[in-house]
Every structure is written in structure tokens, then in C-alpha cells.
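FAQ: What does the model actually see?

It sees only this:
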Amino acid sequence: MGARLGTAGTLIAVALATAISVTALKQNQNIIAVVVDDSRSMGLKDTGETRQHEAVHLLEGGLLKDLQSHYQVRLYRLGASVDRIDSLLN
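And it is asked to produce this:
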């Protein structure tokens, strides 16, 4: 029982130490990938517009700029393969 508690305590200490080091990172050091689905299902209309239109509209509506102000953003298109893109217009 004591060994289990010791192991659990060690795991918690390692997890906390990792969390503390992550919060010490500076702004714009982190990289985030934004993956835009380009499959056929994105052409379906759920709310009057296609899913792809809604996703791009959400990103262009300020979400992408907000992410870019805090992170290094890499854009990718996911279809038959995953391709890095320079902008949402690609």
C-alpha cells in the first residue's frame, strides 16, 4: 500500500512540475495547428450554408487572428491527404 501511495505521489509531482514549466513559456513560442477539413461532407448544408463556409467564416471572423496573436499558427487542409496551406483561400 505504501509503495502505491509513493508511486501516486511521484506521478502527481511530475504532472505538477510539467504543468508549471508549460505555463512559463513566452507568448508566441507555442505552435498550434489549425486543420481545415476539405472532405466532401464539408459541402453539406446544416444551417443554410455549407459546413466549409461556416468553418472558414468562423476562422476569418476573428478566431484565426486571435490565435495568431498568442501562437505561431500553421494552417493545414485535410482531404485525401494533409497539406500545409498559406491561407484559408488555398
